[in-house]
What does this fold into?
Amino acid sequence: QVQLVESGGGLVQPGGSLRLSCTASESIFSFIAMAWYRQAPGKERELVAEITNGDRTTYADSVKGRFTISRDNAKNTMYLQMHSLKPEDTAVYYCNADQQRLAVVTFWGQGTQVTVSS
It folds into this structure.
């Protein structure tokens, strides 16, 4: 069973920056894609950013130009660098990974809280 562990969340003022990390229990070479999702109170979970094993990236319109997703295969870690944070970015951020086995299997981390507030 693949374990995904997020870290880096916390409280930050509007306009500030944070970097989230997601470390996997095995080589991320095996993942066809990894992604960050977030869920704010009372809202559905939404895709924030995705990166494929070919390093193709996709972003939600609400974070384009402010967030950057990346992966370090040597460290089995994916990152989300967040700049110019807004109160509406407040949410629990989840790491997600898709692994190709006989079928595609999806794994989730436990989530890390990001709170943007003055």
